[in-house]
Design goal:
Layout lengths: L1 H21 L4 E4 L18 E5 L8 H9 L6 E6 L4 E6 L9 H12 L8
Parallel strand pairs: 1-2
Antiparallel strand pairs: 2-4, 3-4
Amino acid sequence: MKTLIFTLVCFVLSGITSINLAYGQEVQSIALTKKGELRIPAESDLGQSFRLDLSHMEFKTDLEMIEYIRTKSGDLHLMRAVPHEKAAILYLKANERPDWTDVEWNDYLKNQQQAEFNNKK
């Protein structure tokens, strides 16, 4: 029963993410470096969301993807899976570090998720 409830909650959150994206919230695409690091492009709007293509990762089910991506959030960022797009959305908690530039955010992300995505193939 807990699994069913968890699954429903994950799909609802995924749907809300998609709805937010559909209604004007700007999303910039980002990619992993060859070392498996998330990199925010220089001079990006740090208040926006970032879309990460995960089509190269072979998840068996949507739930597997949701559970995996859920573990990638940190103190200053959230990761949300969007299974129907084979993507994840990165949300920075930029209001908690308003003086940070892309350099500081990239250092933070490197320390948080270095090569994490490469471990899942």
